[in-house]
Amino acid sequence: MPETVFLTVDITHRLGTFDLRVNFSLASPWTVLFGPSGAGKSTILRILAGLTQPQNGIVTLQNRKLLDVERAVFVPAGRRRIGFVTQQPALFPHMTVRRNIAFGLHSLALDQRNQRIVEMLRLLRIEELSERVPAELSGGEYQRVALARALAPEPKFLLLDEPFSGLDADLKESILNELTVWLAARRVPALYVSHDLAEAYQTGGDVIVLEHGRVETQGSIEQVLAPRREQLLRQLGVFSRPTPAPVPDESQTSRRP
Amino acid sequence: MDTQALWLTLRLATVTTALLLCLTIPLSFWLAFGKARWKIVVEAIATLPLLLPPTVLGFYLLVLLGPRTAPGRWLIRLIGHPVAFSFSGLVIGSMIYSLPFAVQPITSGFSAIAPEILDAAQLLGANRLRVLFEILLPLARRSIFTAAVLCFTHTIGEFGVVLMIGGDIPGVTRTLSIAMYDQVQDFRYAEANHTAFLLLAVSLLALLFVYAWGRQVRRA
C-alpha cells in the first residue's frame, strides 16, 4: 500500500451559494471523508472522478496531473482509472449482471475478461446473480454488483460514496473485510464517504472532516474521531454512569394533589 | 389500384425512413447531450416542418433545388440532372417534411436516460461510439422504433410537398396520395376508395404495431 503521498487536491468550485475550497493530500490506503450532508463530499468525489470540472484547481494522482485548470489539463473520466461507486449507483438496466461487470473490461482478452468476471462475482458473493438483470436484484445485491463493476477494471484509486448503506450489518462487515484485503493485495487506495463510525474504525485509515465546503480536520481515525466516539458512547451510557434520580421526600409527595 | 404508385410510395417511405434515422440519431444525440448555446436554434429549425404548410415547404424546396439558385445548380452538376421532379427530389422533400417526427421522439428517448448511467459508462472508459451503440440505442430503442414508424407512415401519406417538388410523373414521382387525387379529379371514386382504404389500413397497422411493440418492451 502507498506510504507516501499519492493524491494531492487543491480545488475551488462554486455552485450557486455553495463554495467549495479544499486543499488536502492523501497518503493512507484508506481515507474516510466525514461530514454532514451538503458539506461537499460528493462534489469532491465527482471532481476526482472527472465527472465534474471545477472552476479552478489542481489534482495529481500518483505523480500524474489529472487536472490543472490554469494550464487547461483535464484527463477525461474514462482515462483516469478511478473506480467510483455512489450511494445510488446506476447499473445498465438492459444488461445482465455479467455484462455489467464486463463493460469496463473491453480492452482485455476474452479469457482474461471471463476470469476477472468470475473473480468479481466470487468476491462480492453474487455468483448466482450473474444472469439476472438489474430489475431483478434487491437493494443490497444491486450495490454489490455496482461495486463488482467498479473493481473489475482494477482501478488505481477507488472512490466510495456510502456504497454499503443498503446492506445489513453482517454482510456490510464481511464485504468490507474482503474488500480491504482485495484492495491491499493490489495496492489500490480508497477514499470513502461514510457517516458510520463503526465502518470508519473497521477500515482503520485516516479521516478528513469536511464542513461547509472546507477541510476542518485531517488525521488518523483515533485522533480525529475519538472525541466523537466518546460522545457517542456517553450517549449510549457506556462511559458515564447514569446519576440516580432524586427520591422525593414525604413532604413533596404529600403536597401533590 | 395504381400498383406503380404503391411501390413508388413504399420505396420512398423506406429510403426516407432509413436516411432520416442515419441523420437524426447523431443529431438527437447532440441535441440531448450537447452543451452549445445555439442548439435551441437547431431544435427550432428541426421542428419547423411540423408547423409550416406542406405547400410552402414544397415551394421553397422547388425554388432552392431548381436551376435558378446556386445550391440547385451545384446539385444539378453533382448528380447530372435537376433534383426537382425526380425521385431524389422527393426523398429530400420527404426527409425535411418528416424531420420533426424523427427528431422529437429520439431526442426525448435519449434525454430520458438517467445521467448516472452515462456517468458510469464514461467512468468505465467507454468512448462516444460505445456509449451510443451499447447504452443509448438499446435504451432508446422504443423511441427509435416509434420515430421510424412515424416517418414511414407520414411519408406514405404526404401530399403537398411531393406534389410541389415532384409533380405527377407516373413511375417517377406519382405517389399513392397523388394517384388518389388524380382518381378523384377523374371521378373514379371506386379506385379512389380503394387507395384511401389502403392508406388508412397502412397507418392503422403501423400504429397498432407501435403500441403492441411498446407494450412488449415495457413487459421485458
Walk me through what this model shows.
The complex is a heterodimer of chains A (257) and B (220). Chain A is an alpha/beta fold and 257 residues long. Chain A has helices spanning 41-49, 97-102, 110-123, 139-151, 169-185, 197-203, 221-235, 250-255; strands at 7-15, 18-26, 30-34, 56-61, 64-68, 73-74, 82-85, 157-161, 190-193, 206-211, 214-220. Chain A has a domain at 7-81 and 155-255: 3-Layer(aba) Sandwich (Rossmann fold), CATH 3.40.50. Chain A is built from eight helices and eleven strands. In chain A, the strands form two sheets. In chain A, strands 7-8-9-3-10-11 form a six-stranded mixed sheet, with helices on both faces. In chain A, strands 2-1-4-5-6 form a five-stranded antiparallel sheet, with no helix packed on it. In chain A, strand 8, helix 5 (169-185) and strand 9 form a beta-alpha-beta unit. The longest helix of chain A is centred in the last third of the chain and has 17 residues, at 169-185. The model of chain A is unreliable at 240-245 and 247-257 (pLDDT under 50). Chain B is mainly α and 220 residues long. Chain B has a single domain, classed as Orthogonal Bundle (MetI-like fold), CATH 1.10.3720. Chain B is 80% helix and 0% strand. Chain B has eleven helices and no strands. In chain B, helix 10 runs antiparallel to helix 11 (189-219). The termini of chain B are far apart. The model of chain B has no long low-confidence stretch (mean pLDDT 90). Chain A binds chain B through residues 49-51, 76-79, 82-84, 86, 88-94, 103-104, 106-107, 149-150, 153, and chain B through 114, 116-117, 119-127, 130, 134-135, 138-139.
